[in-house]
Specification:
This protein is α+β, with helices and mostly antiparallel strands. The protein is built from 16 helices and 14 strands.
């Protein structure tokens, strides 16, 4: 008889990310509104793990605020010393800035990137084929994510090697929960974007930075709107660098692992590539690269007979919610690329639904299409893979890939 897993939340990182799912199951089933008495700094926080509770908190920005940071640490914004980036803003200010960003990421604009990104993916998959065995994160996932973010922000081709180096440092530090440990990279990146902002002010181009520099945010009583501050633009750049990389690293590594572990699901995609877009959504649901982010209660919140006091951090455990049978049925923890997923929280939901969601799905689709077409018998080795540090993002830092099956 198996020993029951205790319904206790313990932050994961690196090797302990390998299998957090029994813990999530125990929390969902036995303590869905879980109280953690000490965050390591002598302060408590709460954890929500059921889909209905997580979704409800995600859409209720009035009761669950993002303005005090997204980790279970208190005083996060003060330590960072930054003006709040997009993900740490609440409506209506958040809504006004988000509107300018999403205007640059419409479905038509994202679809127009397909030929350019497909060419890059094909070249990288062919490199994997030639190598036979390689690290798929290093060869494909990391450079693809960096390319997409750089292109969206308008980083010129000649500067993208520098941008990729800063990105690697910032993403690693952010995943570890200590952005300040990448202080030099952050300073260099912000200095670079400060110059790019001034350049786009003089000579705008068709990119995100230009749209923000010349855009105006809606503000009550100001029909003409207000300019977007440099600090806000830098915050958007920072958010896109961290969020864009975390999501794609986690999604691609996780999707290739799922298709290696479930050859029957791979066979369904090979039989009908038209299933791949739905398969990407299923992989997003199961991998949930950002396993959870926190909010802060603005009022007392009653759930499941418990009361979360105002002013407390609450971790929305997206990865647990996305495997909740109450929402996805009794086979919620199984991979089914034909599943009709009505909604999920892998990219959050409501006001903070990921602005790059369409970009993430596009990258996932292109990679699965080209890997399956060119390496239909590929395999990855999850046991030899290495997970990144950090308590919020579950992603492979390295993952061995073999273009042919066997072994």
């Amino acid at each position: 008889m198996e020993t029951p897993v205790p319904a206790v939340f313990e932050p994961r990182g690196a090797e302990t990310w390998r299998d957090p799912f029994p813990m999530y199951r125990a929390l969902r089933d036995r303590d869905p509104v879980h109280h953690v008495p000490d965050n390591g700094e002598g302060k408590d926080y709460w954890v929500l793990s059921r889909f209905g509770h997580v979704l409800g908190a995600a859409v209720d920005a009035r009761s669950f605020s993002s303005a005090s940071g997204l980790t279970f640490a208190y005083g996060e914004m003060e330590r960072l010393g930054l003006e709040s980036p997009l993900v740490m803003m609440d409506p209506p200010e958040h809504t006004a800035l988000r509107k300018l960003i999403t205007a640059r990421l419409t479905p038509r604009q994202v679809a127009a990137l397909d030929p350019m990104l497909r060419g890059f993916v094909v070249e990288r998959v062919e490199r994997l084929r030639e190598l036979g065995e390689a690290d798929v994160v290093e060869v494909l996932a990391r450079p693809l994510a960096s390319l997409v973010v750089a292109h969206a922000l308008g980083v010129p081709l000649e500067d993208r090697d520098r941008f990729a180096r800063w990105t690697d440092a910032v993403v690693a530090a952010s995943a570890g929960g200590d952005v300040l440990s990448a202080g030099d990279a952050v300073a260099e990146m912000f200095g670079y974007f400060g110059g790019l902002i001034e350049e786009r002010r003089r000579a705008p181009r068709d990119d995100m930075v230009s749209a923000l520099v010349h855009g105006r945010m809606a503000e009550p009583g100001r029909p003409e709107g207000v300019p977007v501050s440099m600090a806000r633009i830098l915050g958007v750049a920072f958010t896109m660098v961290t969020g864009g990389n975390d999501t794609i690293h986690g999604l691609l590594g996780g999707a290739l692992e799922l298709l290696t572990r479930h050859p029957d699901q791979r066979a369904l995609l090979l039989e009908d590539p038209g299933r791949i877009p739905g398969g990407v959504v299923e992989c997003l649901r199961l991998t949930s690269p950002v396993q959870g982010l926190a909010r802060t209660t603005t009022r007392d919140v009653a759930l499941e007979g418990r009361t979360i006091p105002a002013g407390r951090k609450v971790l929305l455990l997206y990865a647990a919610a996305n495997r909740d049978p109450r929402e996805f049925g009794p086979d919620a923890e199984e991979c089914d690329v034909t599943r009709r997923v009505r909604r999920h929280v892998a990219l959050s939901y409501g006001p903070h639904h990921c602005v790059g969601a369409a970009l993430a799905r596009l990258q996932g689709r292109l990679v699965l299409e080209e890997v399956l077409a060119r390496c239909p018998e590929f395999r990855v080795d999850p046991e030899a893979g290495r997970f990144a540090e950090g308590p919020f993002v579950r992603r492979y830092e390295s993952l061995p890939f073999a273009a042919e099956g066997g072994g």
